[in-house]
Design a protein that fits this description.
alpha/beta; 8-stranded mixed beta sheet; Rossmann fold; 268 residues
C-alpha cells in the first residue's frame, strides 16, 4: 500500500522541509521505497538533496501543467540515499496563474500520483501557504503531517489550517486526515519549549508524535551541504530524533489509529 503524506504549515520556518527530507531518508534506510515530491516553488527540498534547481527542466511543474506527463519521467533517483525525488524548479512559481482557469486545477497532482504505486511512501513538501499548490498536495494526500515550532505563537494559525483540511476533506478528498503533529526546534534549556509541547498535547492528545525534534546545529548545517542528516551527521541529537520519528511513523502505519478531523476541531 502506498501512503501519501503532505507536510503542511502556512507558517514558514517551522521545519517542514527539514522533516520531509529527513523522514524520507530514514524511511528509505528502513528499506521503504520513498518518493519525495517538492511542491514548493522555492525548491528547498530539491536543493537540500544537492540538486541545482535552476538546472531542472521537468519535475512537479510538468506534472501540474501537462496532464499527460509521466511520473517516472519527472523523477530523479538518489542511489546513495535509496530514495527518489520529483524536483521543483523556478517555473513552479507561475503555476497558480497558469492553472487558474482549469476546472481540474486542484486535482493535477493526485492524478499524477496515481502512477506512484511502486512506492511505500510519497512525501509531499508543500509551500508555506494555503494556495493552489498546497491544495494540490492536500487533494493528493491521504494524510497530513503538521510540523509545529516550539515557540509562543505555535498554535497561531493551527486552527485555520485544520479548518482548511476539513474543507478539503468535505469538497475534494474524503479520506484526508491528520497523521500527526510534530513538535520541532525544541530547546530543553528553555521552559517555554516544554510549555508549548504540553499545550499542543493538551489540545491534540492523540495526534502529537512522541518524537520531538530539537534545535541542533548539525541539523541546521546539513541543507547547505546538500545532504539529509542521516549522511551529514548521523550521530547528532537531530539525527536520533528523526530516526525515532521514522520508526514511530512506520510502526504506527502498521497499526493505524487515525481519528477523524471532526474530533480534532472539537478540541481547538
Amino acid at each position: 500500500m502506498t501512503r501519501i503524506y503532505a507536510f503542511v504549515n502556512q507558517k514558514g520556518g517551522v521545519g517542514k522541509t527539514t522533516t520531509a527530507i529527513n523522514l524520507g531518508a530514514y524511511l528509505a534506510a528502513l528499506n521503504q521505497q520513498v518518493l519525495l515530491v517538492d511542491l514548493d516553488a522555492q525548491g528547498n527540498a530539491t536543493s537540500c538533496l544537492g540538486v541545482v534547481k535552476q538546472d531542472i527542466n521537468a519535475g512537479t511543474y510538468n506534472l501540474l501543467i501537462r496532464p499527460q506527463a509521466r511520473l517516472h519521467a519527472n523523477t530523479m533517483r538518489s542511489a546513495s540515499l535509496q530514495m527518489s525525488l520529483v524536483p521543483s524548479s523556478p517555473a513552479l512559481a507561475g503555476v497558480e496563474v497558469e492553472l487558474v482557469k482549469e476546472p481540474d486545477r486542484a486535482e493535477r497532482l493526485r492524478r499524477a500520483l496515481d502512477q506512484a504505486n511502486r512506492y511505500d511512501y510519497v512525501l509531499i513538501d508543500c509551500p508555506p501557504s494555503l494556495g493552489l499548490l498546497t491544495l494540490n498536495g492536500l487533494v493528493a494526500a491521504q494524510a497530513v503531517v503538521i510540523p509545529v515550532q516550539c515557540e509562543y505563537l505555535a498554535l497561531e494559525g493551527l486552527g485555520q489550517l485544520l479548518e482548511t483540511i476539513s474543507r478539503v476533506q468535505t469538497t475534494f478528498n474524503v479520506k484526508l486526515h491528520v497523521r500527526g503533529i510534530l513538535m520541532t526546534m525544541y530547546d530543553s534549556r528553555v521552559n517555554l519549549s516544554q510549555q508549548v509541547v504540553e499545550e499542543v498535547q493538551g489540545h491534540f492528545p492523540d495526534k502529537v508524535f512522541q518524537a520531538v525534534i530539537p534545535r541542533n546545529v548539525r541539523l541546521a548545517e546539513a541543507p547547505s551541504h546538500g545532504q539529509p542528516i542521516i549522511t551529514y551527521a548521523p550521530d547528532c541529537t537531530g539525527a536520533e530524533a528523526y530516526a525515532n520519528l521514522a520508526n514511530e511513523v512506520l510502526n504506527g502505519d502498521k497499526y493505524p489509529e487515525d481519528s477523524p478531523i471532526e474530533e480534532e476541531q472539537t478540541r481547538t
